[in-house]
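ok so i was messing around last nite and threw this chain in just to see what happens. nothing serious, just curious
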Amino acid sequence: MCCEPEAKRWKRVTLIVLAMVLAVFSILYSLVEGSVSVAFGASSAASLTLLEFGTDSLIEVAAGVVVLVKCVRFFLKKKTPTTNPHFTHPNLFTLRTI
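result:
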């Protein structure tokens, strides 16, 4: 009975919602982490390391937003996500032009 279309649909919806929840948590955590580290880095010590760490957290926020937007698009399309044929090369570290 696991191969029914309705069961597959609910499993897909559940996984996409879980991915969205994890993306939101990751974004919020990185925002707090980055804000705190930038605030302490810019305070009396003026620590370059903390400022760098805060900047890295902002990059993580941007990546989390990309993941969240992708999940929302999959959720609203109500289709099964497909892979991009340009990025299915076995060597994952090779960037290919589109």
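not much to say yet. Helices lie at 5-42, 48-77.
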